[in-house]
């Protein structure tokens, strides 16, 4: 990726493409977001994220909600979002989202205001940023740090997590998804919360798994990368796939 001179002089924390304008890349460096046009190889803007004490950010990304005008970052145990049109104050924040360092954050692509966080406390938490005091759902399915959390691009009840316990999990969170309830064999509506469960465990990695990503082309495929450089491709179990398709 082309990078302008101002970016080269700073420590890059995270870079990601704009959700709509694919020629734009946002790069988080120190307490700034540098917005670049990679086709023209030019720096479009440098935006300072104002925050008392100047926290050290660990990762950041565009928010695909709100017309993609927000940039979301995590620092220490907190998660925050800034409207880049008026970055002098946070658009929203989740203070003390985890008891230990927050490693990653992702945003529901289909349901506004819903975000997911994970961290060194081994928990995956799901929040409504309008009421950030208590998470909507808290999962403790991993036995060590969770490095990465990702919503499925199409079916947002599917969430993938990667952990230092060497495992990749796919969790189905029907209770907070944008898709309708499922029914049991008698046609009765099943309790949403009872449907929240781990539907796949992949333990082929031998080292800590630092990254997991869903395929942009196939909603049932995901890739994971571990410390030893091993890249694995896995798929949603067929039985779970057919259950989800039956809801569409």
From TrEMBL:
Domain EIPR1-like beta-propeller residue range list: 23-168
Keywords associated with the record: Repeat, WD repeat
GO-annotated biological processes: protein ubiquitination
Superkingdom: Eukaryota
Keyword hit for Nucleus: no
Database matches in InterPro entries: Beta-prop_EIPR1-like, EIPR1, WD40/YVTN_repeat-like_dom_sf, WD40_repeat_CS, WD40_repeat_dom_sf, WD40_rpt
One Pfam family hit: Beta-prop_EIPR1
Gene3D superfamilies according to UniProt: YVTN repeat-like/Quinoprotein amine dehydrogenase
Coiled coil, from the record: none
WD repeat positions: 95-131
Family the UniProt entry places it in: Belongs to the WD repeat EIPR1 family.
Name assigned to this protein: EARP-interacting protein homolog
Gene this chain is encoded by: LOC103521119
């Amino acid at each position: 990726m082309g990078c302008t001179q101002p970016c080269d002089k700073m420590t890059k924390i995270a870079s990601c493409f704009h959700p709509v304008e694919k020629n734009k890349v946002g790069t988080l460096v120190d307490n700034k977001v540098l917005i670049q046009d990679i086709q023209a190889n030019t720096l479009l803007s440098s935006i300072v994220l104002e925050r008392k004490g100047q926290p050290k950010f660990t990762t950041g990304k565009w928010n695909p909600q709100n017309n993609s005008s927000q940039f979301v970052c995590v620092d220490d145990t907190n998660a925050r979002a800034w409207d880049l049109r008026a970055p002098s104050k946070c658009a929203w924040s989740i203070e003390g989202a985890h008891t230990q360092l927050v490693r990653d954050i992702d945003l529901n692509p289909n349901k506004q205001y819903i975000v997911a966080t994970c961290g060194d406390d081994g928990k995956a938490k799901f929040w409504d940023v309008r009421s950030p005091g208590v998470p909507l759902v808290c999962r403790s399915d991993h036995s060590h740090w969770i490095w990465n959390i990702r919503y499925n691009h199409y079916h947002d009840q599917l969430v993938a997590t990667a952990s230092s316990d060497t495992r990749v999990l796919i969790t189905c969170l029907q209770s907070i998804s944008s898709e309708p309830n499922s029914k049991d064999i008698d046609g009765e509506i099943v309790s949403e919360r009872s449907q929240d469960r781990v539907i796949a465990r992949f333990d082929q990695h031998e080292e800590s798994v630092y990254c997991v990503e869903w395929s942009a082309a196939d909603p049932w495929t995901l890739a994971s990368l571990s410390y030893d450089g091993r890249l694995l491709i896995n798929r949603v179990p067929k039985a779970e796939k057919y259950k989800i398709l039956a809801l569409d």
